[in-house]
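[[Sequence with tokens]]
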Amino acid sequence: MKSRTVGRIGRDQRVGTRVQIKHSMSLFELILVGVGGIIGAGYFLGSGQPIRMAGPAVLLAFAIGGAITAQTVGALNTLALDHPSPGAFKTYADAYLGKFTGYMQGWTYYITSILTIASEAVASAVFARLWLPGVPVWMLAAAFALIVLAINAFGVQNFGLVESVMSVVKIAALVGFIVTITIVLFGAHPATMGRMISGPSASLFPNGFTGLAQSMLIVIFCFAGIGVFGTAAIELKEPKHLDRGGIAVVTILTGLYILSIAALLLTLPYRTVSTTASPFVQALMAAHLHTLASILNAVILIASFSVMAGSVFSANQILVSLGRYREAPAFVKRTFGKRAVAYGALAFTTVGVAICIALSYVLPSTVYTFLISASSFLTFFNWFIMLLTLLAWKRKNKDKPISKLAFGQPVGTYVTMALIVVMAGYALVEKSQRLGFFACLGIAAVIAIAYLFVRKHVHSPEA
């Protein structure tokens, strides 16, 4: 059913709740919001770790990451087209897997968003220290996070436009990097060609399958921002084009990641790639393109603001949904002002981000690895539940179509879920990633225990 004023009205199949949805986003904006919500400082800084772990095989790791992302987005698109809901992941899990699973899904996704905001803020601080070497990381990270939170306090009615502009900047930066390195390799310095598989090992898999599997935790982190795509998808003007947008987002992301890292590996031996500074800036410096390196550093800073803004937007939507179900403090769903900004949710998010950034003061040398590892383990959990939700939905809707991104059903979903379990297990082999895993176990335990106190009050969401 359509309306000229509010667009389609979705229905939660379990609770029968009517949800009014305003369709104001074009397909092009959705694609750019999807790309913009994923490419951030985490990729520009964090990609150094999987490169060192897997060597040139990291290209295969990103291809696998793209396939897993496609399956997950396909699950989201399938459910969103059937019954769109502002609560997205939490609502679907709640409807098909039960209240407890929906509760866990909502809170773990929210906490993942908080960790993403904090990790992007810390990464931004690392890049900013190129110009402000004397300022502590925690202080810069806090300043950047406060700026993004303050922007969100004025409302997000132009969220699609802002993300679209920032996405264009980030895509242009990666394309520019690929083109520049290509010109350098084939033009001024042709002797550097072939460095990707040269050296003592001369192997695409210098660290074997284990190195490839261990790298996947950080690779998945580079794709983890699909949450923004999922929560923004319900605002699409033409919902029937949702799958087209998902295909475009996954294709653009995977292609940019693989091509840019290939260009990087053709410039620097994988063993020399930095894990504490941006390997892309490092590559430009190695090619004696210092001005371009400084420009890219500035672009990465912009990229991090884009991802942080998207994560705050997405996190607050999920938190408000939890509040409507009485699975979060009542004040988080309250809105104020003409722009109906959820200031309660924003205040709650601010406290969460502050706690995470405080770790950069206590653990300055390891905080970034901890944040992205913890975020990635929670992402594994979230994606596994999304895929499980699709299987549960299909059992009740055997005749309804499934997104083209969720290819090879149901085998494709089962294989993807198995890969997630295997990758999470291999990540534990890497000592630096174990702390994030144990932190996730602790978070999950706290969330589960809290459910014992809120389950009696859980009810259908308010209209």
The mean pLDDT is 79. The first helix runs from residue 27 to 36. The chain has 17 helices and two strands.
